[in-house]
Design a protein that fits this description.
The structure holds two protein chains of two kinds. In chain A, the strands form two sheets. In chain A, strands 1, 2, 3, 6, 7, 8, 9 and 10 form an eight-stranded mixed β-sheet that branches. In chain A, strands 4-5 form a two-stranded antiparallel sheet. By secondary structure, chain A is an alpha/beta fold. The longest helix of chain A has 29 residues. In chain A, a hairpin with a 2-residue loop joins strand 4 and strand 5. Chain B is mainly alpha-helical. The chains are: A alpha/beta, B mainly alpha. At the A-B interface, helix 4, helix 17 and helix 18 of A face helix 13 of B.
């Protein structure tokens, strides 16, 4: 026993030493934490985007490192949980200081739940406006998102395919009749005229976003389709599915469309196997480069008489400020920092893509196809992306399934309209507490 | 016996019971609670049976149930197929160890990996259809994953192929531990291969067959999410043709912000699983008691 006291620790000594050490570490940590808090706040930033814009991770990392006013801890979110993870954290009072936000309903539900702050008063009005958060970020006169990077929604066509079919590759179809005439020629040359891939459903969302605009005058009118003020069984509101049905019946869609996913489907256009289809602006630099500038961007050919028909669709990904966070001013300052000319330039350098800010110097865009697209989409009037007003339940149970069924030839456009009306009614039954907010939102966006 | 010694066994199991109660019991209680609430975020007001009423009146829910029931058709193929292959392997055909490894390989690969490969293979212009067209069997070159009429059957093929691997290994393990003298006796009595299989081998494998049957039914009812998620483009498509109850729950919870609805369907799935599984275990216990008695 004596040996224990001289050579090793007694149990009491061990416990005392451990307690003393623990207390010391805790005290040091507290003091260091207090000192750190006194110097720079720590901001948690939950973001998304690397998945669709490779290089964004590098930009975020560099931005955070170079920012001295706060310690920003970025966390890249998984696509499947961007909304649910944020809403759960916000409900538990554990929201991050800065949150990535998709446009429209994808963040508006969080607004209605009280999880997001309006940016007015925190971020300069000029910055908000320049970032092009779009109309769909506004509710009750307030803006809840700052644009981060631009997302033009486009139709693309392969100029080589058009050349082979004897079409004017510099003048893509502007009307639906012109598209059908082009389809006949393309089909005659053995080229699938229109399509891509719809196996994962997203093509149906993109098509809806372009085509519903054909017969609508405002985004508010589109929202009315869900509140019950308007009805998908009205022919003008399901005409887009009827047009899709026509493409199918005429054999103008590529035969592997139903078993091909969205992005491999766009690859088919780049490869010249499909002539015309849907894409997003962020893909243009790579696709243009892969084809030596033989991919052109176009607006969906016009058939409708709505005021939104034939106009370029411009969306943006964005960032916002959750409620109940301690460092809101510091978070707002970081958002302002991301909109500084240096950061806009850095985002472009890291990703090759265009930040959502009208002050960005677009002279750095060297690719002629990308430059042409950007000028077309930004110099004139552009319109919001209407798929962003679709409730999640409608998206899952009507928007994606109907397009897939029409493309397969299992459903007519009219039947698609009936299903859409039924699911919209179900959505109202399942979400009675949200319908009033939707009605208010429709009023806001009716102008 | 002293009071303390009577309590002792319960005290020994208390920590583990408490842990299990926390890990499994608490979430279950919360799910039951949520099923009676309109949950937004992490809580919401009580709405009685409204969630159940909405779900049970929705055609998509019943379509999902129907798809699960349709997938149950895979179970006999899984059981009989596994049994047959295990018996053939047990005959120690040349290279049987290699075959065993190859057959078990799908089971140790993650479903998403297998499904991604399968999707490539089963594309409309993919290798399977190219082969069929090359053989002049164009009528069999179906749109395996792009047609609403075919996609669920493609999922079923994938489930049978992968899940049978477990059955093969279980059955083979049991076969290797059988009393060979009974088989030899039957052989000496003139029983042919089929008779020995049906009257001697299979009865001795009853327990493991029952076990695999129960596991397979549970798998089909509540563990096919990854299959339909991958093959159905993450959406239970094309259309809603591969939507199953698990995917319905996932969509309600994650994609449509309806935790109350997701909880109500989870409760229904839990109760149906109990209804199916408890009688199976009761029958099994009675059979054991009779065997012992």
């Amino acid at each position: 026993m004596a040996n224990n006291n001289t050579v090793g620790f007694s149990r009491r000594a061990l416990l005392e030493s451990s307690a003393g050490l623990g207390a010391g570490v805790a005290l040091a940590g507290t003091l260091r934490g207090r000192a750190a808090r006194a110097e720079t706040p720590t901001l948690n930033m939950w973001w998304w985007g690397e998945q669709e814009l490779p290089g964004l991770q590098g930009f975020v990392d560099d931005s955070v490192k170079s920012y001295n006013a706060a310690a920003v801890k970025p966390m890249l979110q998984d696509t499947a949980v961007v909304i649910s993870q944020f809403q759960t954290a916000a409900a538990a009072g554990q929201a991050p200081d800065i949150q990535f936000l998709w446009n429209g309903i994808y963040h508006m539900e969080s607004v209605w739940l009280g999880y997001l702050r309006p940016l007015e008063g925190l971020v300069r009005d000029a910055t908000i406006k320049a970032s092009n958060p779009t109309l769909l970020s506004r509710f009750d006169g307030k803006t809840y998102r700052l644009g981060w990077y631009a997302l033009p929604m486009i139709w693309i066509y392969n100029k080589d395919s058009y050349d082979k079919a004897g079409l004017n590759a510099d003048s893509p179809p502007a009307t639906w009749d012109e598209l059908l005439a082009a389809c006949e020629k393309l089909k005659g040359k053995g080229i699938a005229p229109v399509g891509g891939g719809i196996q994962d459903g997203y093509w149906g969302e993109w098509f809806f976003g372009h085509a519903l605009a054909q017969n609508t005058d405002t985004a508010g009118e589109a929202i009315d389709l869900f509140t019950g003020e308007r009805d998908f069984t009205d022919p003008k509101y399901h005409e887009h599915w009827v047009r899709l049905e026509d493409l199918k019946k005429n054999g103008f869609l590529n035969d592997e469309m139903s078993s091909t996913e969205l992005y491999p489907g766009i690859d088919l256009i780049v490869a010249g196997k499909v002539a015309t289809g849907l894409s997003i602006g962020a893909r243009m630099p790579a696709d243009s480069k892969a084809t030596n500038d033989r991919i052109g961007a176009m607006v969906m050919p016009v058939y409708g008489k709505g005021k939104l028909a034939g106009k370029p669709i411009m969306d943006s990904q964005g960032l916002g400020l959750p409620t109940k966070t301690a460092n809101v001013e510091a978070a707002a300052a970081f958002l302002e920092h991301l909109q500084s000319p240096e950061q806009l330039q850095a985002l472009h350098e890291k990703t090759g893509w265009i930040p959502a800010n009208t002050n960005f110097d677009t002279s750095v865009i060297t690719d002629p196809a990308v430059r042409a697209m950007w000028q077309s989409w930004t110099t004139g009037e552009n319109v919001p992306y209407l798929s962003n007003v679709v409730p999640g339940q409608f998206y899952e149970q009507a928007l994606l399934p109907t397009a897939q069924q029409v493309v397969q030839g299992k459903m007519t456009g009219e039947q698609a309209g009936e299903l859409a009306a039924k699911v919209a009614k179900e959505w109202r039954d399942f979400n009675p507490d949200i319908v009033d907010n939707y009605k208010k939102w429709a009023t806001d966006l009716a102008g | 016996m002293r009071q303390g010694s009577r309590l002792a066994p319960y005290l020994y199991v208390l920590p583990l019971t408490a842990l299990l109660g926390f890990v499994f019991g608490y979430p279950l209680v919360r799910i039951f609670e949520f099923s009676f609430k309109m949950v937004r975020g992490i809580d919401g007001p009580w709405i009685g049976l409204r969630n159940f009423e909405l779900v049970l009146n929705q055609p998509l829910f019943w379509e999902s149930v129907r798809h699960n029931l349709q997938l149950l058709l895979a179970v006999p193929f899984m059981v009989l197929g596994s049994l047959l292959i295990a018996v053939v392997l047990h005959e120690r055909v040349t290279g049987w160890k290699l075959y065993r490894a190859v057959l078990f390989l799908p089971y140790i690969l993650a479903v998403p990996i297998i499904a991604v490969v399968m999707k490539k293979i089963f594309q409309f212009n993919g290798p399977v259809n190219d082969l069929l067209r090359g053989l002049g069997l164009d009528f069999l070159a179906l749109d395996w994953i792009g047609s609403s009429d075919v996609a669920l059957w493609t999922v079923m093929i994938l489930i049978i192929w992968r899940e049978s691997a477990l059955g093969i290994i279980l059955f083979l393990a049991r076969l290797l531990s059988l009393d060979e003298s009974l088989v030899e006796s039957a052989k000496l009595d003139g029983a042919n291969w089929w008779q020995r299989l049906v009257y001697v081998v299979v009865p001795q494998m009853k327990v493991v067959i029952e076990f695999y049957l129960v596991v397979s039914v549970i798998t089909i009812l509540s563990s096919v999410f990854s299959y339909v998620y991958m093959i159905g483009g993450g959406r239970g498509g094309p259309g809603t043709s591969t939507t199953v109850v698990e995917l319905y729950i996932f969509n309600a919870l994650i994609r449509t912000s309806l935790p109350g609805i997701a909880s109500a369907v989870s409760v229904l799935l839990f109760l149906v699983s109990l209804l199916l599984i408890v009688p199976l275990f009761l029958v099994r216990r009675r059979a054991n008691e009779e065997a012992v008695g």
